Amino acid sequence: MTDVPAGRTARYRLLFTGYTSSTGPGVAATVSLIEDGDLRIVVDPGMVPTPSSLTGALARAGLAAADITDVVLSHHHPDNIMNVGLFMLARVHDHKAVYRGDQWTSRDADGVALSDSVRLLATPGHSDEDVTVLAGTPEGVVAFAGDLWWRPDGPADDPVAPDRQRLRRSRERVLACADVIVPGHGPAFVPGPGTVR
Q1: What is the SS3 assignment for 68?
Q2: What is the pLDDT of residues 38-50, one digit of tens each?
Q3: Percent of the chain scored above 90 by pLDDT?
Q4: Which class is domain 11-182?
Q5: CA–CA separation, 95 vs 129, rounded Å?
Q6: What distance in Å separates the CA atoms of residue 187 and residue 195, rounded to the nearest whole number?
Q7: Among 2, 9, 75, 172, which residue's Cβ finds the most Cβ atoms within 10 Å?
């Protein structure tokens, strides 16, 4: 089975472009919106200056928080999940389950298809529970990779990664199928020979 989604109907936009220069104060998550058919998926609704940074971006896209059908958490660090509560009506996906209201269904995220064009991959490395979202768009495959890459330039040596070799394997898995990568705390980038592995 290939990791690449079969469909190419998804569209995406960055709701907020995150930033960080260290592991210290002054960090914001890159928060993304994927639309495919009836699905409206927010990836990593984490730390941003104010909740209106996200709700305002959604409003500019013609959406409200209640319109979001799904939220994907790439991992459980606070800077990537802080605003998940804005989307109380959505299904929430992580590495081990899908949650809605007061219910959850346990399942491994690896290979879960949210649609023909959107699938989840287990990509541990930055943490033990990392998940990457792959979206097949008309322009190619976009990987919402959480903190496998914080920014387009890495970091090459992630200071919080519990296992550097596992991080490298997950990065290689994503690079094998992604035309564009959306990192956890920076702008989208096109991977190339200089992309850290």
Answers
A1: coil
A2: 999 999 999 999 9
A3: 92
A4: alpha beta
A5: 6
A6: 14
A7: 75
Helix locations, 50-116, DSSP H = 52-60, 78-81
Cis status, amide bond into 155, omega within 30 of 0: yes
Q: In one letter, which amino acid is 24?
A: G
For residue 116, count CB atoms less than 10 angstroms from its CB and return exposed for 0-12, middle for 13-18, buried for 19 or more: middle
Our measurement of the distance from residue 90's CA atom to the centroid of its chain's CA atoms, rounded to an integer in Å, reads 16
Model pLDDT for residues 111-141, shown as the tens digit of each residue? 999 999 999 999 999 999 999 999 999 999 9
> Do residues 47 and 60 lie in contact, with contact meaning Cβ atoms separated by under 8 Å?
no
Single out the residue of 174, 36, 185, 143 nearest to residue 166, CA to CA: 174
The CA angle 66-42-157, to the nearest 5 degrees, is 155
Judge whether 30 and 18 are in contact, CB under 8 Å.
yes
| pTM for this entry | 0.96
In the block, residue with structure tokens 């959406």: 63
